[in-house]
Amino acid sequence: MKSLNPGYKLLTLIIASLLLSVTFHIRLNLIIAAGCLLVTFCTPGVNRRRLLLGLLPFFLAALGMFTAGLYFGADGGNQGVEVTMFGQRTLYASNLTTALQLSSRILAYGGLGMLYAFTSNAFELVMSLMQQFHLPPKFAYGILAAYHFFPVVREEYGIVGAALKARGVKAGPVSTKRLFPMLVQAMERSESLAMAMESRGFQDDAPRATAFRTRVRPADFCFLFGLNGLITAGLLFL
Known about the structure:
The protein is mainly α. Helix content is 68%, strand content 3%.
């Protein structure tokens, strides 16, 4: 999975999410969720502990939706049907079917998201968006700068907290005494970064070299058409 082009991988999973959104299909949602998690878990180099921790919010949300669908239906327990574009009948009521429909969809989306998040590199994604999808460089480098700026903000937050503690000043996690100096330092670093880019001749329309090129291989198209073809077949025949 890590060898696939990240831009085409993102496109594939977006299309897969749109296909799953047109109907409530319990078995297909569970198959997609289980398959994505299995592939992610078996991919070499994936931090499995972080994967399990990242899945925790999805499981909690699925549990909440399951409870809401089971006990708090809008129709007061009366069942109804809805015909989707694939001709499937979807129950909507405060019953077990509705609860499974709602919770399984969350698990399917969570599986697709975890599959991409743990098998893709942010820098390679931006390079792919520039080279294959013609994203303007000013947006691409802005995305990269914002992505790499989060650790800087976290570091500044810790430094300010340590400085306040050394002075004997009590400040909570969201106190303005802690947040305001952190934001000032972050703005100063962002201005320094902008000046550094300008001093190195960064211009949006200027020709430039790239650190590396992302390739589009037959495996990317196989993944694009294979996954979405399987989902479409599942919507029609399961």
